Automatic annotation (TrEMBL):
Biological source species: Streptomyces typhae
PANTHER family: GABA PERMEASE, GAMMA-AMINOBUTYRIC ACID PERMEASE
Domain Amino acid permease/ SLC12A positions: 25-455
Membrane-spanning ranges: 29-49, 55-72, 93-114, 134-152, 164-185, 210-232, 253-271, 291-314, 335-359, 365-387, 408-429, 435-454
The protein's name in its UniProt record: Amino acid permease
């Protein structure tokens, strides 16, 4: 079978996992996976840089993400696999590509688990200062490691309710915000266009400010990929991922762009509390809603814990898929009741190691880890687009019935997405802060590509060939 041949490819291109996830789980994983602390808190810094034009920044990056998810949804519906884009990249471009995309994403998720553990611990430590932060991190790691060691339906239930709370909070915020914009809240006057056009105009810091906001918004969307990993363990993988991708894209765009529009319409972008407290807390405080800060702290805590849970899951499934395809230590691929428990433990231990490094070496090793993962999501998106470009042609020729989800205006919008990613890379190279991340991520990517290519050549010389 050629690398881009799909006619004889099995529906599950890696290992036999369980099938305990329901459609409601997938729908909420798709929505909740991308709604994290980056939206609730981190977007405040982006607003401070871009001003009201943050609406445009999130709309542009949201359009790029919608294209990426449409491409990934097309491939995932045609060939559900827990290795997701790693499997697709291997089949389209070769084992080196699957190796590079898979292990770089695993590394990203493991470091992210550590970051989320630190953030969650800081919030709870503020409520219970008598308990040290490391103890909270240890507790969270144990809870979610245990959740992921059990049957996959337990992960699905945790993530379903976590995501439901986050989505509910955003819907409530949007509802209150719209009422305030219309002047229908008690003791609240409609702001009109004052905050959108005043204080320096819609784009107060010019194109440079818009670029900073655009870069921040691109990385805030990371997390959607988890739903295509989880789809392989659902009751009806093809139908499940197709529906989840279709419904999640426009809802997430509404949540992100809508939230930013509400914030910058109700508050001057120059308000210090937007960056200091986070845009959601600042807006609710401005509207005189009592306890807004604590309410949003609870929501942010849930967002962080949800992300920890989802990232341990995603990392363990990606590692399991890579091992099943001969790209890692065999021990990581052992299944116990349909769950890759050794992969779960390994991913959790690495995440906890990142937490320890943040205390021991915050200024060098931990910062190096942060810089290394800075642009990995863009590398993953590039592999998704490149793989879809090749696999779509093969699908149309050999198995058109598998095209349950189709990329719009193929291949032109795929080329547009690739051009958009290239533009983001160039913009990152222009900014001093993101340039460092780009170099570190580039170094890691080149290293993984070299290892993957060398491994592929060894396999070919032995006559084993690609396994996807």
């Amino acid at each position: 079978m050629s690398r881009t041949s799909v006619q004889d490819a099995p529906p599950q291109a890696d290992s036999p996992l369980g099938h305990g996830l329901k459609q409601r789980h997938l729908s909420m994983i798709a929505l909740g996976g991308v709604i994290g602390a980056g939206l609730f808190v981190g977007s405040g810094t982006a607003i401070a840089a871009a001003g009201p034009s943050i609406i445009l920044a999130y709309a542009i990056s949201g359009a790029l993400v919608m294209l990426v998810m449409r491409m990934l949804g097309e491939m995932a519906a045609a060939n559900p696999a827990s290795g997701s884009f790693s499997v697709h990249a291997e089949r389209a471009l070769g084992p080196w590509a699957g190796f590079t995309a898979g292990w770089s994403f695993w590394f990203l998720l493991c470091v992210a688990v550590g970051l989320e553990g630190i953030g969650a611990a800081k919030i709870v430590h503020g409520w219970v200062p008598g308990v040290p932060e490391w103890a909270w991190v240890a507790l969270f790691m144990l809870v979610f490691c245990g959740t992921n060691l059990a049957a996959v339906k337990n992960f699905g239930e945790f993530e379903f309710w976590f995501a439901a709370l986050k989505v509910g909070a955003i819907v409530l915020f949007l509802g209150i915000g719209v009422l305030a914009i219309l002047g229908w809240l008690p003791d609240t006057d409609a702001p009109g266009m004052t905050n959108l056009t005043g204080h320096g105009g819609f784009m107060p810091n010019g194109v440079d400010g818009l670029i900073v906001g655009l870069l921040a918004s691109v990385f805030a969307y990371g997390g959607l990929e988890t739903v295509t990993i989880a789809a392989a363990e659902s009751e009806h993988p093809v139908q499940g991922v197709a529906k989840a991708v279709r419904t999640a894209m426009w809802r997430i765009a509404l949540f992100y762009v809508g939230s930013m529009a509400v914030v910058v319409t109700l508050l001057p972008w120059t308000a210090e509390e937007v960056a200091a407290k986070g845009p959601y807390v600042a807006t609710l405080d401005h509207l005189g809603i009592d306890g807004a800060g604590q309410i949003m702290n609870v929501v942010v805590l849930v967002a962080l814990l949800s992300a920890m849970n989802a990232n341990i899951y995603g990392a363990s499934r990606m590692a399991n898929s890579l091992v099943a395809r001969g790209m890692g230590p065999k021990a990581l691929g052992r299944l116990f009741g349909g769950v890759p428990r050794i992969a779960v433990l390994t991913s959790s231990v690495f995440g906890f190691l990142c937490v320890l490094l943040s205390y021991w070496r915050p200024d060098d090793i931990f910062q190096w880890l942060l810089n290394t993962i800075g642009a990995i999501i863009l590398v993953v998106w590039f592999f998704i687009a490149a793989a879809q470009l090749k696999l779509r042609t093969a699908l149309e020729r050999e198995a058109p019935e598998k095209l349950v989800v189709k990329m719009w205006l193929f291949p032109w919008l795929t080329y547009v997405a690739l051009a958009g990613m290239a533009t983001v890379f160039v913009l990152m190279a222009r900014e001093s802060e993101t340039r460092t991340q780009l170099f570190y991520t580039g170094g890691l990517t080149v290293l993984l590509m070299a290892i993957g290519y060398a491994r592929q050549k060894v396999m070919e010389s032995r006559g084993t060939g690609p396994r996807a």
